[in-house]
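Before the break, one more example. Copy the sequence into your notebook; we will annotate it together after we see the structure.
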Amino acid sequence: QAEEARKQAERTLRLQAARDHVLGRMTERIRHSLDLMEILQTAVTEIRQLLQADRVVIYRLRPDGRGFIQVESVSQAEFSLLTEGITEGIVDLQLDTLAKNSFARGQVQSISDVEEDPVPPSCVAHLRSLQVRANLTVPIWQDRHPELEKGDGEYLWGLLAVDQCRGPRRWQDWEKSILMQLSPQLSIALQQARLYQQLRNLNNDLEVQVELRTAKLQQSLHFEEFLRSISNKVVASLDETEILNSIVQDTMVSLGLLGCKVGFLSDDFSTFIPRYVCSQISPSVVGRSYPIREMGDFLLNSLKQGQAIQRCFYDSIDSLWVTLLNCPILDEGELLGALSVERPPEQIFLEAEIQLVQQVANLCALAIRQARLYEAAQAQVTELERLNLLKDDFISTVSHELRTPMTNVRMALRMMQITNNREKQQRYFTTALQECDRQIALINDLLDMQRLEVEGYSLNPQEIHLVRYLPELLSGIQPLAQSKNQHLQLHMAEGIPTLWADSISLSRILRELLHNAVKYTAPEGAIHLRLTSDQQGILFTLSNSTEISKAELSRIFDKFYRIPQSDRWKHGGTGLGLALVKKLVMEIGGNISVTSLEGWTHFRVWLPIRLKTTSAPLTTNP
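Here is what the structure looks like once it is written out:
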């Protein structure tokens, strides 16, 4: 008997050593992996093979107490539960049957035979449907992660269940012991896999963040280079068209847009007019007007305040939806227009892109201001050159006009000095007197022109009854016209109102026009002065039977200009008369025009019924 007991003990020890070896190898294989599914699948496979069970499953519990089968290992396909679609109820049944609250670390729940053991009748039918005849269940506990999971201490992660399906089975203590030893090993392996997965997630998150930061850095460098390129173009050119066309093209390529355009607002802010456009969808948009009401008052007010607006916009002209970003183009607070960029409706502009487009809009404003300042400077240079030419021409003309009468006066005085003939002396004296009058008239005309251009003049307004005033005025001109066999006639419509004006100024205007008409009208020619009126003013129309060429007509009001070879009576003149007339008419609120066709020349002077007054006196020529 002692020998038999010794041999039995040796067999038990060898069996125990073999089981420990298998358990250690299984534990090592389980803990060797860092993949959760691989760990669980290895565990159920090794346990089933070790215990020669029909089925081993691991149930995974959810926070609400329900669960599902995570993995299983079966000896025959018909014992599988993963294809049954009833995994939700299994966990609830197991927990209710095995008293969920009685699970503790290192404790095993055992059923040897569902037909014999004290199992609640309500569960027996269900266990039969699952082909469960005997069962071992051990809990799998996990420590809570302080940052990821609520609560303190451990929580029930899941259950490891061993099922015998072909018949009852009385479970051995070593079988229960193996499950009790394996449960904490699974817990450690799962904890290790979870930490590894968290590390991988952190690494993945870090890689994603690095990629995002790298992409943002590359985007920033690209945007910086893009802005530098545009800035260089703005500095290098003063041509608005060249710069803005280049900006819209470069912006469209850089941001991958459907379209980019720079447009300006009308003076009354009623319409938006694209001027510089680069577009894949609307190549003919240049010059097209977009009513502001279609864009909304909110957009206009936001642009005036310097805010960029992004919105989904339906272009009724092109019949499509786009994501539209409008950035204001402001010059010293004044809204000139907007830089508009377009993308497909499913894409939006990110904050960095919005800031970039706003900076481009600021460069557009700088380019526009720079180009327009240059244009204004060029216009000023051109105007200064024109004024300089006018000054030189004025000095040359005045010098000639002053020198000519003085030369004639000097010549007449010398001739008087060397001749004793009384008749010749009288003729020379008359010539000298006429040339003096001519020079005085020129000086007075120059002074009057200066006062009209710089100081203005004063009037003495009074009632003028034109029915009496004009015949008296023409009576002084009639002898001169008759001496040249010219026909001077006055035509007045009925109901001509009383004119409130300065008689000297009116006389200066009409006398100059009448003298010019007499000067340039041929013998037997006709001169007509016609008067018509309306509620606002009176129209004087002076017509004479002569025609002036278009080239001469365009210069007739220029200073010192006299129509070449048209002074039929050799009266001469300063060439300032008509220039003074035009200045005077405009200064008192009237207007003057001239036309010449079909052998007639017509001067039309419109004067308001009540003339305005100014401050400086006007010289009255003798």
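The first strand starts at residue 55 and ends at 61. The chain has 15 helices and 18 strands. Try to locate both features in your own notes.
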